[in-house]
Amino acid sequence: MNAALEENPSTLLRVMVVVAAVTVLALAVSCGFRKKPSKVVEDLIRTTERGEIDQAAGFMSQGFVSRRGIDTIKESFREAALWIRNDGGVKAIKVLKDDSVGDVAEVTVQVTRGGGDSSVVYYKLIWEKGDWKIDDVASDPTSPAPSATP
């Protein structure tokens, strides 16, 4: 052992603490402090609501972009942003399902807009280049806002 460490036990303790901290950090990173897939979906919805089309397109997987085409995807986001804005914005996002196994996840959300109507949207995500990316999207028909009278 290094003579300086033997003479000063507090230095040895500091070195041991640093080694332990680095080990814990390495384990945490390898185990994956991944953002939850449902958080990615919520971020996508809010990005679309703000009309940030290029940023929203960045949430899509390479496979999704290859299948649909970037121009088609951006046009869909433009239409969705306009629809959301004309319906009073996004009032609430309720996560109904957030399941993942390895590098694949399924997220189901209910999006309620300011006008009161809501949609259930199903997302399939894949882990791609260090991030969850949307690989497929489907939705149920829009549910109208509840009426004031029966």
List keywords for this structure.
alpha+beta; Nuclear Transport Factor 2, Chain: A; four-stranded antiparallel β-sheet; 4 strands; elongated
Topology overview:
Layout: H1 3-7, H2 9-31, H3 37-49, H4 53-57, H5 62-68, H6 70-86, E1 90-101, E2 104-113, E3 118-128, E4 131-139
Antiparallel strand pairs: 1-2, 2-3, 3-4
Q: How many domains make up the 3D coordinates?
A: 2
Q: Structural class of the secondary structure composition? A: alpha+beta
How would a textbook summarize the main sheet?
Answer: 4 strands, antiparallel
Helix content: 40-55%
The CATH class of the largest domain, by name, is Alpha Beta
List the uncertain runs: 26-30
CATH topology description of the largest domain: Nuclear Transport Factor 2, Chain: A
Please work out how many helical segments DSSP would assign: 6
Q: Give the C-alpha Rg.
A: 23 Å
**Shape designation:** elongated
Whole-number mean pLDDT: 85
What is the number of E strands?
A: 4
Return the CATH architecture of the largest domain.
Roll
